[in-house]
Amino acid sequence: MLAIGTLIFILTYAVIALESKLKIDKTAASICGACLMLFIVLKDSGESGHSDLSAWNQHADFDVVFLLAGMMVIVNVLRESGVFQFVAIKCAKLGKGYPLPVLVLLLMATALLSAFLDNVTTVLLMAPVTLLVAAELKVDALPFLIPEILASNLGGTATLIGDPPNILVGSRASKIFAYTNDISFDFVSFMHVLTPVVILTMAVFIGILLIKFRGGMNVTAEERARIMELDEKAAISDWHLMWIGLLIMLLTLSGFMLHSLIHVEPGVIAMSGAALMLIITRQDVEEALAKIEWNTLFFFIGLFIVVKGASHVGLLDILGKELAQVIGHPDAIIYIAPIVVLWVSGILAGIMNNVSFTLAALPIIETLSVSFFGEGPNGAIAPQAAPMYWALALGACFGGNLTPVGAAANMVVINIASRNNKHIGWGEYLKWGIPCAIGSLVLATGYICLYVYLSQ
Q: What's this model's pTM, rounded to 2 decimal places?
């Protein structure tokens, strides 16, 4: 069974990684792999003893699925008000129509929105307006769009809900550290641990851009005047919807922050916010649900089951033990293990896609944690292993910038650009992606070492 489970796992991941070349959608590959796992590997692993609907429920993490679905509903309703277009135009006008200040403000807005919405939604909203701004200024849109991709992935790293790998890490780590009182992976913990390094990385990133484009991107006074003539208020199509939507978004984020006090899972909080949004704003429920990115949700569900199958046959446990042997057990393992996890995650996430990699990596990290630090009270993972999970989150999110397929936000912007006759090829993207990913991982290495030192 190990050989069969391994084959299904490898084939599924290979098809996902080669999606653009094979012309097979990654969601279809994920669901197909899940069905094979349920038919062959997991058919006797559930309570029912056969593959029925309960099998999907047993092996998929629906906390993650409902968190994503709830946030998608909230954001999709809020976007109808035009508030995000308002933000983008306002940034352009605050920059007085000068390309470099406009670029910096757009990147800061993208990073901030990515932290509290999610990076895919953010680029879907920001990229079209960015193309409009670049067209009005008569400058090349690519130096705006590619940094916007990078900023969305960096900003999304800052919170639990900003980037899917964080949602996955937070969901799994919250369960395995459940009995360790001084370790938490809730919304506040993600902000407390990861936001500082994200702010530092964004500051360095913007500083490098200021140096790179210094003296360039010159535009005429007439072109700047066209930007200043844009009316950001005209972008708001429904002021009532905007204020109600922002209030509900704030209440939902407050629920995430109070998660450890109210003991309600983030998925329940997100779905409650979505229900409240639909009821109060009187949106067409069928239309709102139709805008949910169902392909993304089913991709997650399928991949959960594929990974569960690989774990069930012992493949991921074997990989974890082999990696533990490679790393070894020196006295400095508490520093070495997170750094290895960070860099392996950063590189492989960029190649494989950070969501796919994170799902496969979590069981391996759990094996490493037990190998290096043993188990904590009540069978929980020892608290010394926590830095490896933070390293996984940082590596997967930062590594998503490495290649065009490293994160979903990358492909979204590339597709939007293509529809507007702006081609972003692999070569053009890698000129930006590789330095950004490597540089951010270097900064994250120093930060993780400092975090381990201070947490001892």
A: 0.86
